[in-house]
Amino acid sequence: MKTLALLRWLRYSFVAFALLAVLLCATQLPKLSFDNNILALFPDGDKTPAVATAEKLIAARISQKVFFLVSADSLPDLHQRLPKVANTLKQCRCFAEVSLHFDAEPWLALQAHYQPYAPQLLNSAQHQQLPSIAVEKQVNNTLRDLLTTPGVSITDRLQQDPFATLADYLDALRPGVKGVQIDEQGYLNLLVDGKRYVFFHAELSESPYSVSLQEAAQHALTEAKAVVADVPGVDWLDAGVLFYTMAGTEQARSEISTVGLGSLLGILVIFWWVFRSTQLLLLAFLPIAAGIALALAVCQWLFGSVHVISLIFGASLVGIAIDYALHFFTRRHAMGPQWQPEVCMQHLFPALTLGLLSSVLAYLGFTLSGFPGFTQVAIFSATGLITAWWIVVGLYPWWLRQPPRQQLPASLVSAVSAWRLLLIARLPQLLRWPWLLALAIFLALGLWQIRPLDDVRAMQIPDAELREREQRFQAATGQQMALQYVLVSGQQPEQLLQSLEALQAELDALKQQQVIGGYRHLAQWLPSQQQQDHNRQLWQQTFLNSGALEQLLDRLEVVPQMKTQLLQGYAGQRAYLPVEPTLALLNALPDAPLVFQQDDQWHAVVLLEKLTDTAPLAALASTHPQWVWVDIVGQTNQLLQQYRQGTLTLLLLAYGVIGLLFSWRYGLRGSLAILLPPLLSSLITLALSGWFGWPVSVFNMMALLLVLGIGIDAALFMRESGGRHYYTLVAIGISTVTTLLSFGLLSLSATAAIHSFGVTILIGISFCFILAPLAALSSRQHDTEEPKA
Description:
By secondary structure, the protein is of the alpha+beta class. It has a domain at 2-31 and 276-448 and 634-776. Strands 2, 3, 4, 5, 6 and 7 form a six-stranded antiparallel β-sheet that branches. A hairpin with a 2-residue loop joins strand 5 and strand 6. InterPro entries: Mycobact_MmpL.
C-alpha cells in the first residue's frame, strides 16, 4: 500500500510539475537569447568599484570597434566601390556607425578650443627640444613655414600659434593609426609594404558576444566583401573582438553538434539493439528533450540569456538524463511477464532518488566554486536531471503498465553475466596487499608529478588563421594595446592630473628601457595647472625672453602697435585650460582618454602599448597610493589558482556530505564502500595526469565533482543489487557507455577548459564502471529477490 500511495503521489506531483514547466517554457523560450563571452565563465575577483568601471569602459571601447584595411591594384576602382561597401554595412542593424572618411569636426573644435592656451600646451618631447634650438634657427624655420605654406593667415598664426608649438603638440596627440594620410577623396590611406590600403572602421550597435548580432554581422560582412571581390588584386584585412566571438560561436556550434548528435546517434544504436522498441525509444528521449527545454527556460528566466558553454554541457546531459530510463526499462524487460510497475518502483525509487541527489549535489557544487559561468551550467544541468527523474518516476509507471513483448538480447545477457562472474570473482584477489601496495606507489608517484595549470590564456586557443590575420593588421597599423593598465585616482581634477604627470615621468624611463612602447592618458591632453605654468615659463623663456618672437615680428615688418600688443599678450598671465569644456570636447574624439568620476573621486586610465614585462609596472604602481596596477590576466590566473585549491576542499566536502546522506540507508561501512569506486577513480585519473604530464586546472577538479556525482550511480545500484542481478549490470553498463559518449566527446573540444573537463570525466567514469563491484563486496543479501508489492 505504501508503494501505491507513493506512486499516486508521484503521479499527481508530476502533473503539477509538468504544468509549471509548460508555463515557464511558454513564457521564456520565445525570448531565448545566447551569449558566448568566454570571460563570463571566470570570477571577477575582489575588484574595487573604480576598477570595475574602468574595465567596462575599456571593454566597451575595444569590443565594439571593427577595423578594416582594404587594398587593390587600382585604387580608383576601389574608391568607387567603397561607398557601396559602407552602405551595405550601414543597412545592417548590427552596425551603429560606419566611418569611411575622417571626421575632422571634433578635431577642429578641439584645436580651436586649445588656441588661446597655446603657450601652456607643450609635451615632454618639446621640453627637451625647444631649449636646444638656437634663436636664429627658430626664427628662420618659422619664417619659411609662414611664407611657403599655402592658405595660412599670418595674422592669425601670430596671434594664436606663432612658432607652431600647438600644431606640433596636436600632431603628437592625433588619435588613430600612425602614418595615416588623407587623400583627395577624404579616404584614410596607410602604406604597408609598398602597397596603399584604405583604412576605415565601424561601431557595433551592441555587444559582440550577442549571437544574433554575430549572425547579422557575418551576413553583412559577406555582402560587403562581395562588392569588391572582383576588383583586381583586392586584399581585405579586418580586426576586432567581433571576429573572435564569431569564431567562438562557430566552434561552439560545431562542438554542440559533435557532442549532441554523436551521443544521440550512439544512444539510438544501443537502445535499438537492447530494447527493439520504437515506443521505448521515443519514451527514452522524452526526459532528455523535456529536461533540456526546461533547463533553457530556467536559465533564460534567471540569467537573461543562455551561455553557449551551457549548451555544450546540455548536449552532454543526454548521456546522464537517460540513465533513469535505462534502469526502468532493463528492470521491466528482465521481469518479463511478471512485470509490475509497483514492484519495480519499490525497488528502484531509493537508488534513483539517491543517484539524482548525488548528481545534483555535484552539479550544484559548481555554484560554490565561485565561477559565475559555471553557476549557469550547474542550474542548467540540475534542472535537466530533475526533469528527467520526475518523468521516469512520475510518468513511466503509469504509461508502461503492460509487460514487454520480448526479453533482453541473449548475447547481451550472456556477456554481462560473464563479466559479472569474472570481475566479482577476481576483484577480491586484487585487494591483497601486494596489489594494494603497487596501487599506492602508482598513485603516490603520479600525484607527486602533477603539474598545475592556472593560465587563462591556455583555456582557449584562438584560430590560427584569425590570429595570423590580426598580427598582420597590428603590424600594418602599429596598434598593440596591452590588456594591463594603470588606474590613477585623485580627489580633484588637479590632483588627478598632477598624479598622472608624476607617473608619466616614470613611464618615460620605462619607455627608454623598452619595457613599454608608449602610453596614453588624460594629462597628455589636459595638463595640470602646475604643468601649464611650467609650460608657459618655458615658452616665454624660449620665444619671448630670448627675443625670438620680437625678431620674428621685426622680420615680418609687423606694425609697432600690433607688435606691442602681441608681445604684451604673450608676456601676460593667461587663464588655465578649463577642465569640464575640455573633457566634453575630448569625449567626441574616437580615442578619447578614459576618465570618470565615482565615489567622489576622479579616476583616469593609463593605457599601455607594446608591454614586454609587467613586473616593473607592478612595482612602480606599488610606490604611490593613487596608482593601481591592473593586470586582468594576472589577476584571473591568481584566481584560477585559488579556485583550483578551493575546489579540492569542495570535493572533499562533497564526499563527506554524500557519505552522510548514504549512511542512513547503508550504514557507515556501506556508505564508504559506495564512495570507494569514485574516490579511487578520481585518484587514478589525477595520477595518470601526473604520469602523462597533463596539466591540472580548476576545470579538472570540477570534473572530479561529476565523477563523484555521476560515477556513484553505478556503485549505488551495484550495492542495491549486491552484484547479483544481471539486469542491474546491463543498466550500469549501458549507462556508462552513454555517459562516456556524452562527456567523452567533450574531450574533442578545441577549448582547453572543456577538453580537460571531458578527458577527466572520460577516464574517471571508465574506472568507476570497472571498480563499481567494490561497492557490492560487503553488502548483505537483502536484494536476492524482487520485493513484493
